[in-house]
Amino acid sequence: MADVKRLEPVSTVSLCIIAYNEQACMDSLLHEVRAQDYPHELMEIILVDGLSTDGTKEKMLEFQQKNEGAFRRVVVADNEKRVLPCGWNVVLKNAMADVILRVDAHSSIPVDFVSKNMACLNRGEAVCGGRRPNIIDEDTPFKRTLLMAETSMFGSSVAPYRRKQEELYVKSLFHGAYRRTVFEEVGGYNENLWRTEDNEMNYRIRAAGYRLCYEPEIISYQHTRNGLGKMLKQKYKNGYWIGLTVGVCPQCFSLYHFVPLAFVCAILVTALLAVLGHPLLMALMWSLYGILAVAMACKAIIETRRFHISNLLLPLLFLLLHLSYGAGTLVGLVKLPFWLRKHSGGRSPEVEEIKTAMKKNHGGFQ
What we know:
Layout: E1 13-19, H1 23-34, E2 43-49, H2 56-66, E3 73-78, H3 84-94, E4 99-104, E5 107-108, H4 113-121, E6 127-131, E7 134-135, H5 141-151, H6 160-163, E8 168-170, E9 177-179, H7 180-186, H8 197-207, E10 212-219, E11 221-223, H9 228-245, H10 259-275, H11 280-304, H12 314-342, H13 350-361
Parallel strand pairs: 1-2, 1-4, 2-3, 6-10, 7-11
Antiparallel strand pairs: 4-9, 5-11, 6-9, 8-10
Helix pairs in contact: 1-2, 3-13, 7-13, 9-12, 10-11, 10-12, 11-12
Protein name: Glycosyltransferase family 2 protein
Organism: Hydrogeniiclostridium mannosilyticum
Domain Glycosyltransferase 2-like: 14-186
């Protein structure tokens, strides 16, 4: 497949990582960056720290010092506003290469990660990305169960980057590789969207006439949250920001993003009807949900071919994930009018400012 716009070959790449208090992940991830099989003289590494309070920035500076001359450039910058979209705008202001390649700090990349992305772009694509399996840091029975809940279609989502095995054009990507000309045209990230900046950016990219190519041969890994509390907090915040972003860019979401919200609303409505003397719908809803949760738990266990007593918690884990996400979306929608008023309708002036910065740096590699 090739993008609908005429695109020139690309050779240089900015591999970019943003981190906040990720000291535990830095050594392994930066080792994987150093091990990339793409020519290092064509790579610049941009590391952005969000004012970490642990040793994250020290790890970045150590990598910079040790790899001076090993890459085209190694840049360590500060994200004084601390949130992700602001950090990505810091990246865009510093990047000089043909391609901006995003890597999450809580991830792992194989040695051919950069080269496969660059090969895909040089087939005529403007934006590409690949599969993103989840992995765990510590192999314990309960963490394997959390991983099963996270990777199940019932527990997470049907986003193609989680499981599709064929090449296709999609609405969103994980660890995307973007030609810099894309950002020169559409601008930077909306700094008001702390967790949904990718959804909104990908929508603007598609609206500008570009396509997002999902290439299953490209693979990277995301570390599953280390505990149930952290996982539920993550789901709640994801849902919360979807609720807020509806007021800025409702087109950047699919229906499946709102299924947990519909579930939470159904719980509230059927509970109210039960209080008023009509319990049938509530009983029917919970019966159907219970059957589906048990069936999906059995499917997950069969697929892993590895059973532990903690796997029996999967139906409950599914419920907690759905409730966290749905409740977050509901709270976000309730707060939406106040949030829009505070943030001038959700608009971010940095979106346009990045275009100027990107064009100024264009051709920075000579």
